[in-house]
Amino acid sequence: MFKGRTVAFFVVIAMLVSSLLTLTFTGQWSFAGAGPVTSGIFADNSGSSTKSDIKKIETALELVKKNYVEDVDQSKLVNGAIDGMMHALGDPFSSYMGPETAQQFSEQIEGSFTGIGAEVSMENGNVVVVSPIKGSPAEKAGIKPKDILLSVNGESFEGLSLNEAVSKIRGPKGTEAKVKVKRSGSAASLEFKIVRADIALETVYARMEQDGVGVIEVTEFSMNTAERFQKELAALEQKGMKGLVIDVRNNPGGVLPVVIEMAQQFVPKGKGIVLVEDKNKRREGTLSKGGGKSYPVAVLTNKGSASASEILAGALQESAGAKLIGEATYGKGTVQTSFTHELGDGSLLKVTIAKWLTPNGEWIHKKGIKPDLAVSQPDYFSVAPINKEKTYKYDTLGDDIKSAQIMLSASGYDPGRKDGYFGKGTENAVKKFQDDNKLEVTGVLDTKTAEALESSLIKQIQDKKNDNQMNRAIEEIRKDIAS
Amino acid sequence: MFKGRTVAFFVVIAMLVSSLLTLTFTGQWSFAGAGPVTSGIFADNSGSSTKSDIKKIETALELVKKNYVEDVDQSKLVNGAIDGMMHALGDPFSSYMGPETAQQFSEQIEGSFTGIGAEVSMENGNVVVVSPIKGSPAEKAGIKPKDILLSVNGESFEGLSLNEAVSKIRGPKGTEAKVKVKRSGSAASLEFKIVRADIALETVYARMEQDGVGVIEVTEFSMNTAERFQKELAALEQKGMKGLVIDVRNNPGGVLPVVIEMAQQFVPKGKGIVLVEDKNKRREGTLSKGGGKSYPVAVLTNKGSASASEILAGALQESAGAKLIGEATYGKGTVQTSFTHELGDGSLLKVTIAKWLTPNGEWIHKKGIKPDLAVSQPDYFSVAPINKEKTYKYDTLGDDIKSAQIMLSASGYDPGRKDGYFGKGTENAVKKFQDDNKLEVTGVLDTKTAEALESSLIKQIQDKKNDNQMNRAIEEIRKDIAS
């Protein structure tokens, strides 16, 4: 399982960004109890009009192939056509994925992938091991943190992006990856033979705060998330947890039955978890089969909490008396399913097949769920990076200066204003910052100063004491415990 | 023919923006002398692989129709598919148009449309006649400038956009439009019965400047443009023209044979006009059948001069000794053709079928043609409009302030700086401007001040003396005449 999850999260996100925000059933295209949906009202008129429409597409394909000035790759045209068809729906959650993206998507849903199990990051153009995942083939083979990975099976990583390198390291279960490694202290490179295996992606992180307040962060609702959640929850309860914060900030969603299983823990028997409405407006409710907790629960949300996260938040708010804290959620009130084998070549069609509503019948699509207690993060949590190729001085202006002002303020230097105008106050703050950070004191925002400001900012963001939302949630639960 | 062409141009552009930048043969899909292009190298392998690819698209279509949560309009999916297929080519000049857009496209190419012949604009939510086109049904029926058009055939224009209203006024040749009109001075509304007819779009504007310098502006290369150009050119020559400026700034292109016919006038017999290279890399040159002028010629270009404009500029520069003045051109070195009847429903496929090169064999695609004499317009020709819902005062900053500073400067008020910071200099300039324009002197950039600044700017832009590029071109031709 991943430890240094920030980096792991980054890598995973970077690879799967196109498939985020889903709420899906895996590997099946029948919708539980909604059989008629798949036959559908169009079943009757898909005859001659479809034929002439398909003929039109075929004619266009032929005209392009025969006449376009360059040679064309037919599969590119076909993928473009299906892509365009999905776009025409005007639904960002219905989409087409080629075989490669489809594979990544299913790994995300499954919550696991096959590889060697080394968490890596890119540092100065090198692929560097952050840490081998516990119990993984990489750890067993002897890969250590800070190892620089040079090549796999003879293919050098030089000049590759992190994603490109990662996709070379990965491979089917049981295959061998010969990894060449540069380790500090040894002049020669080392070679490790590692057999790839299933590696679980961690989606649940639990910890106990003071006064018996448990915190469980859920980063995604993958196939194995409910099981992992239950395990961590049980462990916290055994340690005498008196109240719980469930953190689903920036959690883009996942699998519907998984979130239902998790909500079940908190919603008392017979109360509603979620309503699903099919295309014929027929609603079907899922009621809790038993659960409910005696301790107070808060759900921490932000505008990145989408889909399954919103089901959890809605169910716990309306049926389990939980308090929602943070920001309004994303607002995605639809359910998708995936069609894979129908297309025959590993590609995948993700189609919105239903709406979901909260137990009280609210459709939160494009609205989100408002928190009971609104708490925002400090402004510097969302500051844009500074363009380090430019320098700025007194009496200039721009968005980079605005970012610098927010960063100065975050680190305790008062820039006088935060609107992007480089006034005397900003110049003095830059000078003080430069002095404290052993930089040349010029009062000018140059590359080195910008880099130091960003490093300083990252420290502030990583400092738990600045996570207003989490701290407020813990405080609220603590109050509830005491009362 | 249109008189107040600025507005007319705006209306036409607004309606045809998606079909701009073409270089085409109308109504035919065989490429002159390039028959093999249309059979093409893909003719052999369009068998079984195409069938399975088409089957994949059909499967996707069926899956979406049967399962999507909302009812879907099948023609929307089909149009989306063909659209997506064209996008997959990665060529912005190959595109699919539905029947309505295809109709507008062919009107643009033909250089005419059917309607009543009233040039209209939108003023305070009203559709107002700028002027009836000379000899048009609207003029004959008695429509006057400033008339407010209220409805056509009982359909009110209330709440419609200009384009929506225009498309209601237009209609097939011979049909009747009953237009209800509000005329200032009469309380009741008037009704005119107007029979729609063919209306020619003007694309050629000629005038004689001092010292025998003729200027011909060409706004597009439509089917009737060469004929109109020849007529205007002959008229100028008869008036004793001693030198010519051809202005193709912001001319997006048009029909290939038309620009060849126009270039022919200036390129001496046997010299090259353009080379066309088909997908098999076979080049075919078009040589002038006779022409050439004894007087000096300059071609005025900017980055909006595309396609056929660039053919004209390249041919006249390389084969007719003309001087190019202004900015580098757009850089579109490809030829498209339109397929209409193949799709069977009035929709159209525009496909890039060839490259074109200058007589010397230069492919200017994505590069453009550099002028012999670079001349730029004043900065205020390209200033962004001010967001009039906001107000700004001393010691604030933003892009709106930057625009205001450029506008102040254009009207002769020195704002001190033009970087978007509202300093003392800008405040003083705003005060002076307000005083001169009978506005309350506050030094604050408010809605009224912004509106007055923009009106003042438009006057500057419309003032011929500020058209640096045109003035320089006329000056150069004058020098050439004198020497």
Helix count from the secondary structure assignment of chain A: 14
CATH topology of the largest domain in chain A: Pdz3 Domain
Q: CATH homologous superfamily of the largest domain in chain A?
A: PDZ domain
* Strands of chain A, count: 21
Keywords (chains A, B): Hydrolase, Protease, Serine protease
GO molecular function (chains A, B): serine-type endopeptidase activity
Domain PDZ (chains A, B): 102-170
Enzyme class (chains A, B): hydrolase
How would you sum up this structure, described in words?
With 483 residues, chain A is an alpha/beta fold. Chain A folds into 3 domains: 21-44 and 55-199, Pdz3 Domain, CATH 2.30.42; 202-336 and 354-373, 2-enoyl-CoA Hydratase, Chain A, domain 1, CATH 3.90.226; 380-466, PGBD-like superfamily/PGBD (Muramoyl-pentapeptide Carboxypeptidase, domain 1, Orthogonal Bundle), CATH 1.10.101. The first copy, chain A, has 14 helices and 21 strands. Chain A has helices spanning 5-16, 35-39, 48-67, 74-88, 99-110, 137-141, 162-169, 225-238, 256-264, 308-319, 399-410, 424-436, 447-462, 468-482, and strands at 23-25, 95-97, 112-115, 118-123, 126-132, 148-152, 155-156, 176-182, 190-195, 197-200, 204-208, 213-218, 243-247, 254-255, 272-277, 283-287, 297-301, 323-326, 334-339, 348-357, 373-374. In chain A, strands 1, 2, 14, 15, 16, 19 and 20 form a 7-stranded mixed beta sheet that branches. In chain A, strand 12 (213-218), helix 8 (225-238) and strand 13 form a beta-alpha-beta unit. In chain A, helix 8 (225-238) runs parallel beside helix 9 (256-264) and helix 11 crosses helix 13. The longest helix of chain A is centred in the N-terminal third of the chain and has 20 residues, at 48-67. Residues 1-21 and 25-46 of chain A have low confidence and may be disordered. At the A-B interface, helix 2, helix 3, helix 4, strand 19 and strand 20 of A face helix 2, helix 3, helix 4, strand 19 and strand 20 of B. Chains A, B: Pfam families: CtpB_N-like, PDZ_6, Peptidase_S41, PG_binding_1.
